[in-house]
Design goal:
This protein has helices spanning about 5-25, 30-55, 65-85, 90-120. By secondary structure, the protein is an all-alpha fold. α2 packs across α3 and α3 (about 65-85) runs antiparallel to α4. The chain is globular, with a radius of gyration of 16 Å. Pfam families: DUF3054.
């Protein structure tokens, strides 16, 4: 795994943890660290599945925006399925919020990174 890929996987994981922390804080739920981990783990597993799917299909790296869509959708679908299996909530409002926020987080950083790469590539080399 290249440093770029490892950083991207770490960014996805961190952003899922941020999503869980924000959600728990907005509902004033206790036991901060264990609660965040308990909320985040199904979505982190989904991110992992998404990365494996991208790798197995031979597509570009999951750092790119297109494959990032696969990572995002896997995070949401697998995350919700795992939550359902363990008896956690999957109310429609939660599914909608999770889909939108994870989409913003997991695709947003990729879009910003792609724009930064394009801009860097357009700059003339300094002597």
């Amino acid at each position: 795994m290249t440093p770029r890929t490892a950083g991207a996987l770490a960014a996805d994981t961190l952003l899922v943890l941020v999503f869980a922390a924000i959600g728990r804080a907005s509902h004033d739920e206790g036991n901060a660290l264990l609660g965040v981990l308990g909320t985040a783990w199904p979505f982190v597993a989904g991110v992992g599945v998404g990365w494996v799917v991208v790798h197995r299909t031979g597509r570009r790296t999951a750092v790119d925006l297109g494959p990032g869509i696969t990572v995002w959708l896997c995070a949401v679908v697998i995350g919700m399925l795992l939550r359902r299996l363990v008896g956690d909530g999957t109310a429609l409002s939660f599914v909608i919020v999770a889909t939108l926020v994870l989409g913003l987080f997991l695709l947003g950083w990729r879009a910003a990174y792609a724009a930064w790469e394009r801009r860097s590539a357009q700059r003339p080399l300094e002597k």
